[in-house]
Amino acid sequence: MDTREVVDRYYELANAGQWDAWCDLFAADTRMDEQLAGHVEGRETLREMVKSFPRTYASFANRPRHVVISDTHAAVVSHISGLTRQGASVEAEVCNYFEVAGGQITYMANFHDTVPFAPVLHPAS
After folding, report:
1. What are the backbone angles phi and psi of residue 110, rounded to the nearest 5°?
2. Based on C-alpha coordinates, what's the Rg of the chain?
3. Which part of the chain is the SnoaL-like domain (predicted)?
């Protein structure tokens, strides 16, 4: 897959909740700087992190609004809409940066305000 195909597939799989297949888009030695989780190294570490998503979110969508591709780099401005299992809404504007090589994501960073994710980080009892 080229960079555009990888990025398109990233959002397709996330929006379908297919987290194992989503993780497969990342290189085994991928690196990620994630606004909430911090620095993450390795696809299997990422796979462990996203195992909680189905327990956390009743619904989750990350919809691209603007995509810029330049060879092996991409930047995507998107909007996340989620609903936690406790019924709290999560709405956030996000920017994701990708580096792709060999049809896999080798580096990713995301940038967003953390306040909209308070229901996920500190769920009501």
Report:
1. -125, 150
2. 14
3. 7-107
Per residue in 38-66, pLDDT tens? Answer: 899 999 999 999 998 888 899 999 999 99
> Which DSSP helix (H) or strand (E) runs through 92?
strand 89-101
The answer to whether residues 92 and 117 touch, using CB atoms and an 8 Å cutoff, is: yes
- Beta-carbon contacts of 40 under 8 Å, excluding residues fewer than 6 positions away, are 31, 32, 33, 34, 46, 49
Q: Which of 47, 38, 43, 45 is nearest to 18 (CA)?
A: 47
**Mean pLDDT estimate for the chain:** 92
- Entry pTM: 0.90
- Which domains are delineated in the chain? 3-119 (3.10.450.50)
**What average pLDDT does the segment 83-94 reach?**
91
pLDDT, residue 99, reads 98
- Helix (H) or strand (E) run with residue 43 in it: helix 43-50
Q: Are 3 and 69 in contact (CB under 8 A)?
A: yes
DSSP designation for 117: G
